[in-house]
Amino acid sequence: MTFERRVERLLGTSLRRARQWSRPLRLGLILCAALLCAVVLAGVISAPASLLHQALFGLACVIAVLVLRRLEGRLPIIAMISLSLIASLRYMYWRLTETLELENLHDTLFGYTLVLAELYALVVLVFGYVQTAWPLKRRPILLSEDPGQWPSVDVFITTVNESLEIVKITVFAAQGMDWPQDKLKVHVLDDGHREEFRLFCESVGAHYLTRDNNLHAKAGNFNAALKVTHGEYIAAFDADHVPSRSFLQISMGWFLKDPKLAMLQTPHVFFSPDPFEKNLKTQQAVPNEGELFYGLVQDGNDLWNAAMFCGSCALMRRVALEAIGGMDETTLTEDAHTSLSLNRAGYNTAYLALPQAAGMATENLSRHINQRVRWARGMTQIFRTDNPMLGRGLTLGQRICYSNAMLHFFYGFPRLVFLTAPLAYLVFGAQIFHAAPLMVAAYAAPHLLLANLTNSRIQGRFRHSYWNEVYETVLAWYILTPVLMGLLRPKSGHFNVTDKGGDLHLGFFDWKMARPYIVLLVLNIAAVVYGVYDYLGADVTTDETVLLNQVWAIYNAIMCAAALAVASESRQVRAEPRVDAQLPVGLQLADGTQYRSVTQDFSPRGLGLKLAQDQSIPLGTRLRVSLFRHQHPYDFDGSVVFSRANTVGIRFDPLTLSQQSDLVHLTFSRADTWARNWGNGTPDSPLMALREISVIGLHGIAELLKATLRLPGQALERRRAGSSPSAPALDTP
């Protein structure tokens, strides 16, 4: 029996005995224990220490965390969190009581700005630990009733500007879900008012819904459909999110078990790379930006009954939605606000960490920033108008989970402060710490190291070390103003739809998006150089201070350089991304020759595969492709458009609607397509992660230099052409 199991058994025995005590006695003991822990913790946090004693204390904590990091189970993680919080709270207590005796306005301005940023980071760290310390890891409940007793479901597919080719796939997949067909209705909610969509829906048996206006954007579209449909449950999907066949059977069981359950969310996963993965070539090597939220945070929220609706890939109970007046229409993040309203009304929400649908990620950096700007402003609006820390109906855990989700988007100002703080001393000579540099290191190093090691242990499958700083550096400048406007004018702003699909025939360096990173990179490099000059002429007593700030500036420069690499847009020649998948396939040529193989990838128009080592098919060869479901073949005619050694690319002939539907059911709708590799990436190693980001940073600087050298030639070409193509514009609400 493991140590953790012994502890759990001991605690279980103790709890059973404690239940026999009277309620006042139990409450009294709990309060006494809590008070004793608080007194001890306060004593540890506030105890004064010499440089040697603080250094030994920090070293002991780091060693303990390094040992705990190797142990399996949740109890070692709780111990790591406890040590991390002690080190961080001890640092902050010392910071507030010992380092702010600033002597002039110059020092006070820089010093208090930095300490406010640190306080924000500490609050987010504490709330994050509460969210992620013990994920619920909910499992599906399989349906046991006769299918004739299963409830009716309306599938809502919202669209406004997506192409019909994108929406077709989602509609076919929704129609192919394993559910009684007389209890499943698929509705296309078209705010684009497009005739071709209506005709398509009529031809495939889907319901086409539109309205006289586009008020309140997606939420208004959803609510309009809510009034004219009647299913007991609603499955919500964005136009590009393709559900698997098993979505409803996997999701519905919890609703039948819990009559108060109003919403069950499943992960958002993507079959195309986002700008970070595409431009940095990190797909499948580094978890993408959203994996932390869907892989860990939502699972942690679920423990506190605070799982959030994310607008798509979710199942909802109609009566609960109608009880709160439908989807919220007052903020730009209508989905999260809706789940907050459901929880306030006493309904439960749930999260099932099993991918059951997949969509298209934003293709380039400007679109990605547009999307995050909308999220940031919407969450700020909720924080301002319906603050989860205020009002009735929420537990403390729910308040913390929702508050942290909103506070996350406030990182713009703190991140910019951290990226520029070394300049305060190295360039402007501001004394932002009224303390000896070695004492600063003795308090700050355990705080930073323990937080990094603990989060690496908790988040390692879904977020590698230091990548959070890269993501925040890329977005900080752009979300700063929208967040401020959301606080000052919460009713302003509009819903900007994130464009999906398209191609990029030529790679380019996005100067417009990169400007803030270039400025920050130059400033930090200048600070390092200025520090060398200052170091040569400095008094011996300030050498350590210069060195500490230089190390900080170098770290900042690495993050800014990595952000530059993201701004170097890679060439994208396929309007429709290919999905990696290994599916059995049969090939038959016109002369009767047959091959058996396994696909490497697929798209709505073709697939790629590898034959046996000694086999090949010439370019242009006509053939018939067979894909299988339950051993039954489905045939598609096509031709070879790529052939190199034993690698073959096949493009299908134009498909009928029936064939398109079959192809979607055989590929995108497979239950294992999205779940196979999710959360199974390379484990985190902090040192390796820092090395990878440093290499990416060097690549970013190289891309900046190459783009700078190309500028004269590009200017000449523009003058000759008489026009200037531009990168996608940033639409900031």
Automatic annotation (TrEMBL):
Cofactor(s) listed: Mg(2+)
InterPro entries in alphabetical order: Cell_synth_A, Cellulose_synth, Glyco_trans_2-like, Glycosyltr_2/OpgH_subfam, Nucleotide-diphossugar_trans, PilZ_domain
Main location: membrane
Transmembrane segments: 25-45, 51-68, 75-94, 109-130, 409-428, 434-453, 517-538, 550-568
Keywords per UniProt: c-di-GMP, Cell inner membrane, Cell membrane, Cellulose biosynthesis, Glycosyltransferase, Membrane, Transferase, Transmembrane, Transmembrane helix
Keyword Membrane: yes
Subcellular location: Cell inner membrane
Family according to the record: Belongs to the glycosyltransferase 2 family.
UniProt function note: Catalytic subunit of cellulose synthase. It polymerizes uridine 5'-diphosphate glucose to cellulose.
Name of the featured protein: Cellulose synthase catalytic subunit [UDP-forming]
Species the sequence originates in: Pseudomonas batumici
